[in-house]
């Protein structure tokens, strides 16, 4: 029993220490969600199946606008907007997808540890932002197999002042390092979709306070495996799992987290409407889609978004709403002709 208590304490300390990178943790409310897609978020966030990088060619010749907000019960609010476009099919099923995202948060209350803030955790208020551009490429290779690739460029900042002494401050920012993702999916029949999706992100992180600057590499890996099954016409059940790995050199912390994903989707009214629900790592999710050609509106709600990753860094509970408006410009051009 004593050994288990010590092990749990070490894990808890590691998670808390990793939470001292607020500029990186903000990404869980924006770029992490953009990479999955709103449909995937609403049905449990698996991302290895319907949200796989390898399947973006199925959304060829479309443009979209994304918007989302995460609101905490303590008043902390994070919001983002994004715009993206998927090319028509270029060659043998190949399509490219590019999206640019911007996130801002002001007057965020949290507790941070840094030498310039004192000997222990200090209550602070701060402003943060995150900007990124993400490029995906995908194509089918026959016999139900498809492969996709993700390249990303992302920068984050968070500047905070101590509540008890405005002269004490801490500032975080990142410098870009190469980050990549890949996805492989296999659809042996129309009723079964199996997929794997992996992502590896690296950032050079800088923390500056009254006493100086510390820097180090922050690396993270995210690996997803899932299977989606069509139970009956229009009904899809999705089961998967997510493995997360983090290594932060400033705090000399490593940790791994393993969480399940579960989702269900039902299409109605000849696919003009879809409803879905799921469980993403530690968060219940709900979503719907309304299709009126050439426009598709996707909406997802998540309770305690990113809880397994962010813990209570920004608050004890939150509500998130994310929406995407997609226009199929190939269908639009056909209507005009």
Can you describe what's shown?
The protein has 337 residues and is mostly beta strands. The protein is 13% helix and 61% strand. It has helices spanning 2-18, 22-25, 31-36, 38-42, 307-310, 329-336; strands at residues 62-72, 77-86, 95-112, 122-142, 145-162, 169-176, 179-189, 192-209, 212-232, 235-248, 253-268, 273-280, 283-292, 295-303, 318-328. The chain has a 15-stranded antiparallel sheet that branches. Strand 12 and strand 13 (283-292) form a beta hairpin. The radius of gyration is 21 Å and the shape is elongated. The model is unreliable at 1-19 (pLDDT under 50).
User: Which bin fits the share of residues in helices?
Assistant: 10-25%
Shape: elongated
Determine Rg (CA atoms, Å): 21 Å
> Would you report the number of β strands?
15
Decide which structural class fits the backbone. Answer: mainly beta
Q: Which stretches of 5+ consecutive residues score pLDDT under 50?
A: 1-19
The largest sheet, given as strand count, sense and whether it forms a barrel, is: 15 strands, antiparallel
The proportion of residues in beta strands is over 45%
Series of H and E elements: HHHHEEEEEEEEEEEEEEHEH
Number of helices: 6
Which whole number gives the mean pLDDT? 91
State the end-to-end CA separation. 73 Å
Describe the secondary structure blueprint for this structure.
Elements lengths: L1 H17 L3 H4 L5 H6 L1 H5 L19 E11 L4 E10 L8 E18 L9 E21 L2 E18 L6 E8 L2 E11 L2 E18 L2 E21 L2 E14 L4 E16 L4 E8 L2 E10 L2 E9 L3 H4 L7 E11 H8 L1
Antiparallel strand pairs: 1-2, 1-15, 2-3, 3-4, 4-5, 5-6, 5-7, 6-8, 7-8, 8-9, 9-10, 10-11, 11-12, 12-13, 13-14, 14-15
